[in-house]
Structures are given as C-alpha cells and as structure tokens.
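Protocol step 4 of 6: structure prediction from sequence.
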Amino acid sequence: MNEKLNIQRRRLLQFAGIGFAAAAAHPKLLFARGPRVGDRPSANFHPDVEIELKQEVVRIPILQGPRTRVWKIYGKVLKGPEGTVDNITGTYLGPTLHLQKGQKVRIIMRNNLPAESILHWHGLHVPAEMDGNPMYAIGAGESFYYEFEVLNRAGTYWYHAHTHSVTAKQVYSGLAGLLMVSDAEEQALGLPSGEYDVPIVIQDRSFDAQNQLQYSNHMMQRMRGFLGERILINGQPDFVLPVASRAYRLRLLNGSNSRIYKLAWDDGAPITVIGVDGGLLQKPEKYPYVMLAPAQRREIWVDFSDRALGTELTLRSVPFSASMHGGMMGGRRGAMGMMGGGMMRGGMRGMMGGRRGGMMGGGALPLGGEYPVLKIRVARQVRDNDSLPDRLTTIKPLRLRDAANAGNARRITLSMRHMSALLNGRSYRMNDIQPDERIPLNTLQLMEFDNGFHGGMHGMMAMPHPMHLHGEQFQVIKREVNPRSRGQYESVAAGLVDSGWQDTVLVMPGEKVTLLKPFNDYPGLFMYHCHNLEHEDLGMMRDFLIR
C-alpha cells in the first residue's frame, strides 16, 4: 500500500491547534510511515460478516443506445450469509447490503477508480475512524478495512462516497447503495417481506446525446444544487413497479444530489408512513403528502388489495415554494422570489431550467415543480390479507432536562453569501475545530439549525437545507418559522415527518429546527453538513470533535 499521506491527512497533521486532540482520538494519524487507520484488518476484531466491495469504472446500459460510463460498486460475501450482498444488475447503484443488529462486520473497500475515494455509512452509529470522514480517503489501488458492530435498530440506511470537495460528482457517478438492518422486533411484526418489501431509490440525472452522464460544475449550479432532466428509480429510467393486489412496504430513499420531492398519490389518497431515517415509527402516521429531502428515508405502507387488475397509480412530486433569494422571500414574488409552483413552471423555466442548461445549468425539471416520480401497475391478483399493526415499536423520547446544555442550545446558522455556503459563518476546513465544535463524550446535546429564523437574510440566497449529523441519530423537538416565511413554509409543512429517530432534517428558509442528539460511545471527529451535495462540496460542512 502506498505509504505517502494524501493531502487531507497532511493538512490535518499540519494544524497544531487540534493536533493533540486529534492524536488522542486517532493515534494512528501520527505515524506517516507506520500503520494507518483502515489499512489492514485488526487482529482482535472477529467479524460475523465479511464483505468485499470493489469500486470500478464500467459501462452499463441505462438508456437505449450507447452504454453509460459510471463508477460502480460490486460486492462479494467473504464470510457470513450469502444473502448479505445483493448485487443489482442493470443499474449503476451499488449492491444492497443486508445486516442484522448485533453483527460484527468487516467491509473491505478496494478502490479501483482513477481518483481518491472513501465511503460513509449514512445513519449508522460506528466509530469515528470507520465513519468515512474525508481525511481517510484512499488512492487508486488502495484498500480500506471498515470494522464495526451494527448497533442500529432495524431500518433503511445507505452508504455513499464522502470524498473531500468531490462528493457530489462521485455520488452522481454511481458511488451509493442501500444498507438494510433488521432485528428481532421488526421481524416479529410480520410486515411485508421478500418481493413485497421494495426499495425505491429516487434520483435525477441528465444525459448527453451519447447517453453519458452530464454534470457541470459552474458556480450557479453549485449554489443551487444539481437538478437533472429526468427521474430514475433504482437507477432505471421510465420505471414501472408491477404489484400484486396486496399490501407492500415501500422504502423510499432520496438519493438525489439536491432535489427535494413533495410526494403525493395522484388519486389524492393519504400516504401511510411507518418508518423514517432511523427505522420504524411507534405507530403508522397518515399524511396528505410527504416531503423527502436528499438523504432522507421514508418507509410507507401501501395496500393494493382493493385495486382492480391493470389499475395504474402514480406517485408524483407536486408543487411547493423553494425561494432562492432572501430579500424576496415570504410571499413577495419578485424577479428572483418565490420559485416553485406557477413561477417555476412558467417564465423561470426558460431562464433556469432549459433543456441544456440555461443560466443555471441542467434542470428541465424545476425545483418545486410538478412531475411523475413512480408509476405502479397492479399486475396480478392474490388473496393475501395483510393487516397493518396499530403499534410498531417503542421509542423512548429524549428529554430536554437530560441535555448537558439544556439552557444554552448549540446554534448552527445556515447561510449562503459571497459564493460560499457557510455554517456559523465558516466554510469547511479539515483543520479548523472551533471551541463550540467540541462536545463531551456520552452527553445529550440540545441543538438548533437556524436558516434565517432570526432575520438578517436580506441579500442572501435563502434555500432549504437538508442538514445531516453523523454519528447517532437525533429526535426533532420543534420547528419555528419567521412570520415573513409563513406562506412558503405552509407549502411543505403538512408533509414534514419529524417523528421517530432522524439523521437528516429539512430546514426551510426562515425556519429554526430544534433537536436533541446523543453523542455516546465513540470519541473522535464526526461531521455535520448540508446534504445538498453541491452545498457540502462548496463548504457547508464542519466537524465536531467528541472527547
């Protein structure tokens, strides 16, 4: 293995201010010529499951005509149940990994790409060194050994590239896949399983005339986030899900770089949500529509038993307001004001969403517009009589009085100005842990994401931000909205699912979201960032140091 430290590691070691803290959390970083984190299996770790993941450059058929060049992950079970790895054919998505709570897992990632890369296990509670921090990126021809115990409850998680400044491009190129965790409690519920438990990965992509992925990196696209020209489901265009006349469990993941979906059935039926980022809810909840921001997962129960053979049903993204300029928000429809709804479907489409880019690149499907996402067709009749349990699980609510900082929440302000995406006025630096980013280990923290709630948004780009916290998941306590933003907020409010355990929360312009998050078990550096991947690469990402 190449012994030369990559540029991220060098930058980390050069920063004296956190050198000792980083050394305490990551002692292996001090030895440039000796063993490095993840470069070999641990002698004292005995996995129940061992998986090899290879990252390759391949060409696969996506559209009719020439094959598309993608970066794809292939998996193989080296030890453990054969069903642990499900390589999905005909798609750029990586294999779906099936794990059980309590399993000890070793994953060997082999980088056969012409670039550095590292994978993040999104939503999993794992040691800092195994979490996929960009400082651990490995070069072409190198391998990284992940070792961790699955501590999470049953749920729909995922993994994706997390390489410094190129996460968006690498995920867009194909470096992502699902990770399902199961446990005894979930299995005892008798929820739809096998072919009736269907993952739905929603992404948008653009292609050129030769069927190659189009992705530009101009500043306006980075500020707004990439918007593709067509929707792909599980990596496939024009996807139709054939179903039987019975109940299904659909696991929705927004795997898009930046696109936010407002999902509703075209016949007006309510959406029954049974799970979120961190697994099952205490009980099923019904919504008129569901907001799904990048990285969020929502599990829904759909019963087709009363549908006639041949019936078609479409899950659509319906209009909502997505303001782009802070000085024109709160219902004032100026030239750069309330985009989404009629404005985005009309005059703004030409300027921002032209077929080949226009002013802001890509985006034949505007943010906040209306378009079909998933078509379902009842293809066969069965006699199954599944019933949805009234109660799914028990979730112990976190208590404000147990927070170490109950009277002084950690506020994280979100802002975009001067062509920068900032957290508390700071852009990402790998060597820049500030005093307010140091958190005592094994504490519960009260935190706020402030996206212009306290004012001061004039002259700034006011955008929704899906905020993701690495490490343990959190519980949303409350949302507060600036009165000037009320009209815009009301276009999404009824579809915000805040129950249960979350790892990504959508923060609308003019809004403050308060949450409680545990920081237990593992010391080290854990990231927090916007999961609009272009914003992340633009600098809207920071590290907490837990010790």
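Step 5 (inspection) to follow. The chain has nine helices and 31 strands.
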